[in-house]
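Posting here for the record, re: glutathione.
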Amino acid sequence: MNNPTDYVPPKVWTWDKENGGQFAKINRPIAGPTHEKELPVGRHPLQLYSLATPNGQKVTILLEELLALGRSGAEYDAWLIRINDGDQFGSGFVAVNPNSKIPALLDRSGSKPVRVFESGAILLYLAEKFGAFVPTESGARAECLSWLFWQMGSAPYLGGGFGHFYAYAPMKIEYAIDRFAMEVKRQLDVLDRQLVGNEYVTGGEYTIADIAIWPWYGGLVKGLQYGAAEFLAVQDYKHVQRWADAIGKRPAVRRGRMVNRTSGETSSQLHERHDSTDFDTRTQDKLVP
Ligand SMILES: N[C@@H](CCC(=O)N[C@@H](CS)C(=O)NCC(=O)O)C(=O)O
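Prediction output follows.
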């Protein structure tokens, strides 16, 4: 193992603005807005403020699945929040999500707007509102919610732990990478065992548990996250691979992944989504020749 650093924590931690690595510009130890900025509002009942990270994709995938099912009330405007530019600290965004993280949803369909933040809460809110992708029978519902919350509790070890130290930290720390690689491989094994004999995570039904888990763990095993596929030997998780391929082929999943995307092929980037035709007419390759 590398020599441990000679850092000795001081009695009281103080903010060193330069120590945040890739995210030094946006990371802060305080909450609240940094500037005044109203959020835009479109014509649909649902207003989504987001970015196509795995947490953002969960919501756009569910919205596209609901629309594909004919739930026209799920029409939405998706506005781009550029987190590297600090849009999440604008006063309007903080009013919708006091935690200053995408995704954030405003449901304006009722007499008073309803704000929803935390991707798991948004998935459950939408699935219940439209009566789809969450089972109603008590045992199946418990299983679905267990896996939904498993994802919400587990992914920070994948993203904030493994991804941060493997791909983003300003130095490679063997202890941290080891610790989180072990945990992420354990999580992949949990999922792999669950998918033995189960088409989807909770059995035969595609639910918000799959929609929550796929962008993180499906993305990881398909080599879309952190360039870590070889390092984590993701080909070993055969059942996760099979499940990730099947979900990745769904048209609504393909569309959901494009919304608020700002990287990759320009034909896959739909910065803002206000209409179902935008997928054909407003991707970046069409807007910026
Ligand atoms: N638990 C939250 C996590 C959301 C989250 O971490 N969002 C990230 C992008 S994936 C973000 O907005 N980061 C901006 C920041 O930390 O300032 C959820 O699932 O909604």
